[in-house]
Amino acid sequence: METISPALRIRQLVKVFTRPAVDCIDLTIARGEFYALLGPNGAGKTTTLRMISGLLLPDRGSIEVFGLNVVTQARQAKQLIAWLPDEPLLYDKLTAAEYLEFIAGLWGMDARRAEHNAEELLRRLDLWQHRDERCEGFSRGMKQKAALAGALLHEPQLLILDEPLTGLDATIAREVKDLLLERVRGSCTIILTTHIMEVAERLVDRIGIIQSGRIVAEGSLEELRTQAGRSNATLEELFLRLVAQPTAAS
User: Containing domain of residue 124, as a range?
Assistant: First the structure.
């Protein structure tokens, strides 16, 4: 009987700059799972996400996305992935509508499907009335929303989000959370990093805590509470306790 591959399987992943940024990480994320990768600044979160998305080559180890090796089968794997960095990357001279049309062309999307998805996303993210304005005039939050629309446009199976709520007001942040949960219910897999612990606590299925390039704890919020022996602790309390442990930094 054929086994269905998970959305993500990482084995012994290593990346070294002047020191190990990612140090022998093993990680498996199921299809349709909402997963948070949390850690202090410099812990290896963004480096890990960049390798998963194929933007950075690992020094050692393997990464598979839905059974596809992101190094040796890069083209096929990247078709299934969308990456949203913490700093939105837009073409400032394009309008929001032109930007999404450009992204649709990169993915080779059917024109009618692209137009439908673009309008739906621009309306959901409160950008419809700004669709003909150039991105250079957008606020930080508006740029973040336009970049998110671009990431979601081709309906990726694996969505990688690095601090996606930065610069968003409370109303739009709530809309983004609802949109992400809808995508997960529709079988999209999402990997999220955030410094806002309440976001991870309320949204995700499972949490991995990374420190000094290693996963030092992993599980649901309840499983992390059990591991720490603190049944009523918030995620913030658990996080601070785990990254402060001497073994986490060893």
Answer: 91-155
pLDDT tens profile 104-134: 999 999 999 999 999 999 999 999 999 999 9
Query: Cα–chain-centroid distance for residue 221?
Result: 19
Contact 200, 192 (CB under 8 A): yes
Please state, in angstroms and rounded to a whole number, the distance separating the CA atoms of residues 75 and 62. 16
In angstroms, the CA 210 to CA 126 distance is: 34
- Provide φ and ψ at 143, rounded to 5°: -65, -40
Nearest to 159 by CA among 65, 64, 21: 65
Q: How many CB atoms lie within 10 A of CB 86?
A: 16
Distances (CA, A) of 79 to 17, 68, 223: 28, 11, 34
* CA–CA gap between residue 206 and residue 224 (Å, rounded): 9
pTM of the model: 0.90
pLDDT per residue as tens digits for the range 94-109: 999 999 999 999 999 9
- Domain check: are 123 and 45 in the same one? no
Output DSSP code: residue 8. Answer: E
- Domain match, 177 and 54 both: yes
